[in-house]
Design goal:
Layout: H1 2-23, H2 50-62, H3 64-67, H4 93-102, H5 122-138
């Protein structure tokens, strides 16, 4: 019985340490060098075509002010979307559909809540998702 209690305490301690690590903004990619001033991560940009190219244009108009050029994040404004936290198995496409529609309560980063984004259609958001997923794949996030 004592052994189970000790294991439980260790698991809770590790979970708390992980939570603090993410919330403190010291995640593995936050300290990496960047080629874009003010960006949080370095992003390799592949050749974009079709919906990804259109998605880039919409992203730049509606999302880049907070999420940065090439979704690399902006210190003090918004997180990078080219980050392991946003891999498809953790934040699926539906999460990306709902975020600009409803806004998002802060839960991974210390940027505050994300307000809904006005003026985006479902088609616009799908093209933004195609763009972000294309960037993610090019940077090893699948």
């Amino acid at each position: 019985m004592k052994r189970i209690a000790i294991i439980g305490i260790l698991i809770l301690g590790l979970a708390a340490a992980g939570y603090y690590w993410v919330q403190s903004g010291t995640g593995e990619m936050a300290d990496e060098p960047s080629t874009i001033s003010g960006s949080m991560v370095e992003v390799t940009v592949p050749e974009l075509t079709g919906a990804a190219l259109i998605g880039e244009q919409i992203f730049n108009a509606k999302c880049a002010a907070c999420h940065g050029e090439n979704a690399a994040g902006v210190e003090g404004a918004g997180p990078p979307l080219v980050h392991i936290i946003y891999e498809p198995s953790h934040h699926g496409d539906m999460a990306f559909m709902l975020a600009p529609r409803r806004g998002v309560q802060a839960h991974h980063w210390r940027f505050g809540n994300m307000a809904p984004v006005e003026g985006l259609t479902d088609g616009d958001i799908k093209q933004i998702i195609t763009y972000v997923r294309t960037l993610q794949r090019a940077n090893g996030i699948n």
